[in-house]
Specification:
This protein is of the alpha/beta class and 326 residues long. It is 52% helix and 12% strand. The chain has 15 helices and eight strands.
């Protein structure tokens, strides 16, 4: 018996991984992508180059027809990169029928400094929006390893529907009402991951990384409260959990970028990495810095990282920052 009809917008690694979970939970699942070549490849091979050695279930439909994908669905899951979010959601608006939405995309829109939740809410004019965020690499989800995420929402119908569609015995969701804190944690952790990578590039031990993470938790909590969220969210899957994973794993693109800086890689090598890799923390840093300034909130780690990345401050100042007296 089919539980729900669900469409995922975005055929990247995370979208395909979530499709596997939704299918496992007996939902009827469709993946939408605007790219015909992606539809062809996924349909014919049932594999994605972004998820090595993972077979996409044959029951999962793949289409580039947005109207068809959104017809009579019970839940829409957004897994579109932030850079393409607005343009895609504007297309969705033509076919949108106030269907509950679950946002799996993390980040802040560069031009507007709006979180993903606000971008979607403003374009579609709906309150039926949930956000999922937490420590979960797409490949680990697709391989059915146990993972835990925060599910944040202020609409009862949407949070219950999303929970029913996604949660199972290896994909755990903890409910929250704090959308601001959940989205903020999912964005800022990428900046801290760059800082952690810098420390690793210096040859600093795990003890120093742990020091950075702990200090950062205080700053993130202050930022959440300054923007009107719940400071306790910093201890959730979306907060400490995601920060711990992203700031300590070489699988993280942000951590790897920081490592290049700390290990004094050549400018060409760093520029090439930026050109060929999506480094969310770079874009988030600009937007968060603007938010901090506008809200008059003092967040030392954000200020320092902006100076290191965009104002050519010596990365070794990161160590001085950690050992300075309270």
């Amino acid at each position: 018996m089919i539980k729900l009809k669900v469409t995922i917008l975005g055929a990247g690694a995370y979208g395909c991984a979530l499709a596997q979970i939704l299918n496992e939970n007996k939902n009827e699942v469709t993946i939408w992508t605007p790219f015909e070549n992606e539809v062809k490849n996924l349909t014919e091979t049932r594999t994605s180059p972004k998820l090595p050695n993972i077979q996409i279930n044959n029951k999962i439909k793949i289409t580039s027809d947005l109207e068809k994908a959104l017809n009579k669905v019970d839940l829409i899951v957004i897994a579109i990169p932030t850079a393409f979010l607005s343009s895609s959601i504007k297309k969705v608006k033509k076919h949108y029928k106030n269907t509950p939405i679950c946002i799996a995309t993390k980040g802040i829109e560069q031009d507007t400094n709006l979180f993903v939740y606000d971008v979607v809410k403003n374009i579609l004019n709906t309150e039926k929006i949930a956000v999922i965020s937490g420590p979960s690499f797409a490949i680990d989800i697709a391989r059915n390893y146990p993972v835990g995420l925060t599910l944040a929402c202020q609409d009862k119908e949407t949070i219950e529907l999303t929970f029913e569609a996604l949660a199972n015995n290896h994909f755990k969701l903890r409910k929250s009402y704090d959308i601001i804190g959940t989205e903020l944690c999912g964005s800022v952790k990428n900046i801290i991951a760059i800082a952690s990578g810098i420390l690793a590039g210096f040859g600093m031990p795990e003890s120093t990384s742990a020091m950075l993470i702990t200090e950062s938790l205080h700053d993130i909590k202050a930022l959440i409260k300054g923007l009107g969220g719940d400071g306790s969210t910093v201890l959730s899957y979306a907060g400490f959990g995601d920060l711990l994973l992203t700031a300590t794993s070489s699988k993280s693109r942000n951590y790897s970028f920081g490592y290049l800086i700390g290990s004094k890689a050549s400018k060409d090598e760093i520029d090439n990495y930026i050109k060929n890799t999506t480094i969310e923390g770079l874009y988030t840093l600009k937007s968060i810095s603007e938010l901090v300034k506008n809200k008059d909130v003092d967040i030392p780690i954000i200020n320092l990282m902006e100076q290191i990345i965009y104002q050519n401050k010596n990365p070794e100042e990161l160590i001085n920052f950690l050992i300075q007296k309270p």
